[in-house]
């Protein structure tokens, strides 16, 4: 057999194998979706028992058809004012609708579908709602005042959600289908969207929308919410102005990005700031800001620009402050190196359960780079780079609190020494489920106190003393 023939034979063999694998996956998908279908069918039968719902859907279909017949130049907006009139006409022609259904509901739903994002439109417009979560057609949750609540809102079926997802991702040149079943996108108002669909999401198309707050929280707001005290605010402001390297840690949704934004607002306006994020969320008031956003790889798996690439590039942009939205992997090494080589005053966030946990996660992240660094060397980097960890939690009652402000004091032997400066002490829970506790100083002055003074920043010593009469 010639070499060419051999290669050809290998190729054929491989493609046979691939096909076989393909059948397995398709079979799996079929299995999953048939499982889901039977599941959904059960629900549908339940729904179909309600004749009013069926009639409303019928009317909606007729109305939709009528509208589409009239929209020739594709300008749906012009037709909106006439939709109610059309519904009245249809109801006149069809006796079955009369007296049974609520026309307003049908017309509102249709307008929401045509002009906005369907049934979740009112949720997106409600300023008290901060997050909208859709887990398949029957479950729509929102976050309101820190609490997650299930709403009455429902979609007709999977396709109805899919049409909304497409409406969101199409304008920004992304797509969602079986070959790319996960997508990150953004609404025109800046809200962040993640969509993931079957077969990866078993309950049906799943959509998570973190709403963009037009008016981001300020330090005063966080004090008002009880996230931190005035003394803590004075302290944090001084630390940022004195160019300490500050790391905000905490769980998902604990308010890390919000706190990072507030901390950034303490940076003097004459410094050059470079922000690096996966999806730009920070909103700085300063003028001299360069915002960079990472990019996922395309369908061929090419073209990815990671946070790490951006950190490296930012170092060549003469930054005075580097702000990293969230440190997740290898960029930790570059960030630490930058902090250790004169790029003071950097700010970042990371996911963790406590300040100590943040340290060990940073170690793991550095190891992800794949360079064989001894643990001790990594710890030296971390303890030399980071001055302060601000740890935040989302408590059971929905409030967010800064539970620790912790100084990274240095390395003793193999151990990074951490010293809490402020902590949240929980005393209990009251009848309404509210967490009762107190944010207070531990009484210990940070080691870097003198460094603050030499940079001309004064913190009244009383900040570190617990007020016994409060
Ligand atoms: N201190 C706070 N008090 C109350 N709500 C907050 C606070 N900080 C953030 N939030 C709300 O919590 C949600 C998550 O905040 P975010 O800063 O994005 O968290 P993270 O970055 O930790 O995931 C947002 O809807 C935000 O409005
Ligand atoms: Mg965040």
UniProtKB/TrEMBL annotation:
InterPro entries membership = P-loop_NTPase, T2SS/T4SS_dom, T4SS_GSP_E_ATPase
Coiled coil ranges: none
Q: Name one Pfam family in it.
A: T2SSE
Tell me a Gene Ontology molecular-function term this record carries: ATP hydrolysis activity
Recorded hits in SUPFAM superfamilies, A to Z, give:
P-loop containing nucleoside triphosphate hydrolases
Q: Which PANTHER family match?
A: TWITCHING MOTILITY PROTEIN PILT (PTHR30486), TYPE II_IV SECRETION SYSTEM ATPASE (PTHR30486:SF15)
Q: Which family does it belong to?
A: Belongs to the GSP E family.
Protein name per its UniProtKB record: CpaF family protein
- Organism whose genome encodes this protein: Chengkuizengella marina
The opening ranks of the lineage are: Bacteria, Bacillati, Bacillota, Bacilli, Bacillales
């Amino acid at each position: 057999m010639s070499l060419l023939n051999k290669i050809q034979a290998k190729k054929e063999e491989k493609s046979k194998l691939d096909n076989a694998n393909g059948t397995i996956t398709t079979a799996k998908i079929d299995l999953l979706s048939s499982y889901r279908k039977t599941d959904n069918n059960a629900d549908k039968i339940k729904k179909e028992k309600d004749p009013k719902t069926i009639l409303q859907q019928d009317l909606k279909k007729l109305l939709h058809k009528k509208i589409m017949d009239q929209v020739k130049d594709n300008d749906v907006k012009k037709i909106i004012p006439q939709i109610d009139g059309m519904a009245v006409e249809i109801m006149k022609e069809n006796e079955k609708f009369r007296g049974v259904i609520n026309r307003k509901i049908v017309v509102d739903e249709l307008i929401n579908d045509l002009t906005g994002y369907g049934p979740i439109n009112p949720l997106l417009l409600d300023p008290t709602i901060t997050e909208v979560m859709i887990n398949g057609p029957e479950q729509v949750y929102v976050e309101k005042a820190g609490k997650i609540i299930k709403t009455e809102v429902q979609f007709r079926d999977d396709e109805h959600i899919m049409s909304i997802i497409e409406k969101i991702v199409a304008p920004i040149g992304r797509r969602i289908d079986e070959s790319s079943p996960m997508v990150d996108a953004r609404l025109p108002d800046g809200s962040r969207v993640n969509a993931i669909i079957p077969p990866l999401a078993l309950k049906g198309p799943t959509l998570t929308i973190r709403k963009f707050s037009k008016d981001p929280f300020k330090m005063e707001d966080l004090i008002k919410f009880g996230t931190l005290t005035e003394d803590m605010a004075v302290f944090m402001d001084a630390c940022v102005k004195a160019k300490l390297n500050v790391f905000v840690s905490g769980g998902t949704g604990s308010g890390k990005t919000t706190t990072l934004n507030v901390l950034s607002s303490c940076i003097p306006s004459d410094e050059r700031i470079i922000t690096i994020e996966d999806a730009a969320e920070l909103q700085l008031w300063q003028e001299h800001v360069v915002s960079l956003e990472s990019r996922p790889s395309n369908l061929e798996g090419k073209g990815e620009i990671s946070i790490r690439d951006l950190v490296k590039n930012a170092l060549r942009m003469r930054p005075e402050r580097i702000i990293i939205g969230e440190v997740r992997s290898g960029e930790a090494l570059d960030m630490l190196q930058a902090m250790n080589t004169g790029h003071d005053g950097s700010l970042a966030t990371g996911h963790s359960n406590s300040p100590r946990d943040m340290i060990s996660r940073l170690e793991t992240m550095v190891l992800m780079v794949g360079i064989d660094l001894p643990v001790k060397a990594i710890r030296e980097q971390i303890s030399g780079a980071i001055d302060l960890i601000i740890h935040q939690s989302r408590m059971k009652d929905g409030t967010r609190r800064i539970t620790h402000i912790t100084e990274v004091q240095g390395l003793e032997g193999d151990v990074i020494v951490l010293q809490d400066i402020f902590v949240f002490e929980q005393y209990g829970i009251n009848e309404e489920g509210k967490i009762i506790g107190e944010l207070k100083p531990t009484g210990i002055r940070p080691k870097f106190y003198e460094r603050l003074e030499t940079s001309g920043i004064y913190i009244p010593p009383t900040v570190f003393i617990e007020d016994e009469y409060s």
